[in-house]
Amino acid sequence: xxxxxxxxxxxxxxxxxxxxxxxxxxxxxxxxxxxxxxxxxxxxxxxxxxxxxxxxxxxxxxxxxxxxxxxxxxxxxxxxxxxxxxxxxxxxxxxxxxxxxxxxxxxxxxxxxxxxxxxxxxxxxxxxxxxxxxxxxxxxxxxxxxxxxxxxxxxxxxxxxxxxxxxxxxxxxxxxxxxxxxxxxxxxxxxxxxxxxxxxxxxxxxxxxxxxxxxxxxxxxxxxxxxxxxxxxxxxxxxxxxxxxxxxxxxxxxxxxxxxxx
Amino acid sequence: xxxxxxxxxxxxxxxxxxxxxxxxxxxxxxxxxxxxxxxxxxxxxxxxxxxxxxxxxxxxxxxxxxxxxxxxxxxxxxxxxxxxxxxxxxxxxxxxxxxxxxxxxxxxxxxxxxxxxxxxxxxxxxxxxxxxxxxxxxxxxxxxxxxxxxxxxxxxxxxxxxxxxxxxxxxxxxxxxxxxxxxxxxxxxxxxxxxxxxxxxxxxxxxxxxxxxxxxxxxxxxxxxxxxxxxxxxxxxxxxxxxxxxxxxxxxxxxxxxxxxx
DNA sequence: TAGATTGTTAATCGATTAACAATC
DNA sequence: TAGATTGTTAATCGATTAACAATC
Lengths: 262, 262
What we know:
Strand content of chain A: 15-25%
Number of helices of chain A: 8
Oligomer: homodimer
Strand order of the largest sheet of chain A: 6-7-5-4-8-9-10
Distance between the termini of chain A: 31 Å
Radius of gyration of chain A: 23 Å
Helix content of chain A: 25-40%
Number of strands of chain A: 10
Structural class of chain A: alpha/beta
């Protein structure tokens, strides 16, 4: 989904190589860019959310144990993750909440609110357009686009739906790099191609299909039915596990079932 | 999120141990339960979706290369994943589409349609209740619940919204094991507890919080803002990478930004 | 100083991948 | 038989975790 760079920052004869530095300072712009494992990146937003809770509760510091518990991970993993950002904790005390919030926001690129375009204002698109969680967590929905002329002009949270024909103009106007695709599956690939051509480099895809995009474009996919199917596997396993040791007919007793119509 | 069992199916003196069997037949009910890596489980729904496309296009067989491409993975990974289900391909030919669909559906527990309860019929809940993708992929939304008396009785796709006070009765009535939480974050934990007490063992959580549930209950979380924040990290990194080698001021030129109001 | 807690180490575990023998 | 493609091996990589020395 996203490419990894396994380059070693400094060669064996580099005079700085003897000083281990957890940060990759290769950018040289004063903006440090740590080399972050993907698994760590995926957890940072959860830490950030938990930290905001501690901040609202008036905590000035938080221990790795408390923060990890609030984020649903173990403390060793949390400390390992945070160590990739550098050292921002104090032994015997914990982490300064405000400092850590700032550090994570900085690493995630959330110091500035990012403009997002939402394409496909149907059932789900409507819900996403009205979702307050984006605004409070670093994003601004800057454009709504739909192919149905009947929906063009409709206002959601004060923002008017534009026709998909205006996609290129709208993206240019707002300088949008991130788009959410909530169109029918048939339209998703061609919409993605137009978005990329218009400068989008990150896509969140709700359509149940694989998008083909050029290198350098990141795609994340959310498929609601897939999530349920994964849960179904675990349901199935739990039911079988309960039935097998003693052959109990009570297995899956609570499972509601009916033939699949295919 | 879900516990792993690392038990070896048979001991060193087990007479069957000399015959390697990819399937864990410990269930003894004739229902084979392969020991499946979580990463594999998470990809099976994607293979299933791709297989349905091939079936609709009239293909009777499909090669690992073609199926992997349609699912967005490489063919080695696909073959490794499918090998955990047993051997269902034919060398020189590929996989029988219909057979493989049946095998994956069987492993995922999708041979019977599963009843799902949806709690929280707000913005997002409405969209989920109207989403056709659940019905076509193995699920039936059997109950809608909300705490707002003003919403009770409203019908979505012919199903009436029930009051949350009736949660226990509704879950018992439909024998529901899987629930989707789309409530405000403040309500999510207590709703989860009531669902678990009423027999739910799998939860798909859209509320931006960590749910605490007993062992044996599986929770999957979908957080839309988290997905965007992960994309934001990659946007940030791409912009920095573009600027650092030559110090170009054009870096992040396209990034729309404004101060975060916190 | 004593207690608390971080940052890091090292062992372990799970997932990915290329390559190729097996075999249709 | 020749060509195609699977199933498996083995090497590699990345992620997790417990433990504890460092240190506030």
